[in-house]
Amino acid sequence: MAGESPFGTLSVDEFLRDHWQKKPLLVRGAFPDLNDPVSPEDLAGLAVEAPVESRLVLTEHEGVPFAVHYGPLEPGDFENLPESDWTLLVRHVDKLVPEMGALLEHFRFMPDWRIDDIMVSYAVPGGSVGPHVDGYDVFLIQGMGRRRWQINTGPDAPATRREDTDLDVLAEFTPTEEWELEPGDMLYLPPGVAHHGIALEPGLTYSVGFRAPAQDELLAGWLEHLMKRATGRERYRDPDLKAAEHPGKIGRETLDQVRKLLTEALDFDETDFREWFGRFITEDAGLPAPEPEPGRLGLERLKRQLDAGKRLVRNPLSRVCYMENGDRAWLFVSGACYRTTLSLASRLGDQHTLGYQELRDTLKEPDDSSVVLELLNQGHWRLED
């Protein structure tokens, strides 16, 4: 499903073997024909209007280093900005600007659930968010302009954060390598590599980030699910209780019983766990829900539309994954789960657009056709020319 390798002379397999989560990689001319899908003005408009995370960072403002204004921003935030030393960052631009899809397609050698978003930053000379460390992989693609990137891959790279800014900026940073990226260049950084980007001229950078759930995030999600699923309230019991010689003491029997209650509550039912993870990992908090088309679409009308050349196109706001379940499958769409044939789930999960030929047999299956209609009527897919 992925496009051509964006790693120059390296194949995707060679990149995954030698660099992924191992060491940085600079690729000159990774995207030689890159045309910026957004302009600085477009980005400012998204920061003002769109319900996504945005930040305006001034390298220094009124004596405060890396002063940050969090979105949604106001038009007045862009008035009287200096000619240097500030950066605008907007997340999830790939879900709001359809033209971003072509760029993201180059990274679909990764499982879809691992791809988080494309964050776009516009920086004027001196613009920076400071030296920092990310806990996830990132591809930094240079659009218009030039930016200097410095990294520290030393074994004793500092990790102490500054306390005089809201951003996670390193208190100390000494680069071990640095490069100037020009339009079309790309820098890959694995998790944990300290890096610092500084704009040399007005420019755009596209950051392809990846989902890497932390243990506490997974634990919180799983426990929340177990609490919702709980149907009984088994209580502590001690039918073999003996008279206490030391009333203030908590005995071993008590701890064993409490541990047993907790272990039973946390028991991993494999089927339940699989469905939970599919729902959990396709939820997308903080983004607007897809807007349904006006009026409900019926099966016969859908067939006529497809027969006339329309195609099903996935809404960029919708996260989609699937799991095999015997000879059938679970299709997960933005936190919901649908039981379908494996044929339908793989088509909807692996392909962003589908025509009549791909759906002809599927629409003969009543259960599958009802799933397609429901997803269309909820706005997760749309009919387009």
- Shape from CA axes? globular
Order of helices and strands: HEHEEEHEEEEEEEHHHHEEEEHEHHE
Spell out the CATH superfamily of the largest domain. Answer: Cupin
CATH class type of the largest domain: Mainly Beta
Return the domain count.
2
Helix content: 25-40%
Mean pLDDT score, rounded?
A: 91
Report strand order across the widest sheet: 1-9-6-11-5-4-2-3
Which fold name corresponds to the CATH topology of the largest domain?
Jelly Rolls
Determine the strand fraction and express it as a percent band.
15-25%
Number of helices: 10
Number of E-type strands: 17
Uncertain ranges: none
Q: What is the correct CATH architecture of the largest domain?
A: Sandwich
What integer value in Å does the Rg equal?
A: 25 Å
Structural class by secondary-structure content: alpha+beta
CA(first)-CA(last) distance: 21 Å
Major sheet characteristics: 8 strands, antiparallel
How is the topology of this model organized?
Blueprint: H1 12-18, E1 25-27, H2 40-49, E2 54-61, E3 64-70, E4 86-90, H3 101-104, E5 115-123, E6 138-142, E7 147-152, E8 177-181, E9 186-189, E10 194-199, E11 203-210, H4 215-229, H5 252-265, H6 270-282, H7 299-307, E12 311-314, E13 320-325, E14 328-333, E15 336-341, H8 342-350, E16 353-354, H9 356-359, H10 366-377, E17 381-384
Antiparallel strand pairs: 1-9, 2-3, 2-4, 4-5, 5-11, 6-9, 6-11, 7-8, 7-10, 12-16, 12-17, 13-14, 14-15
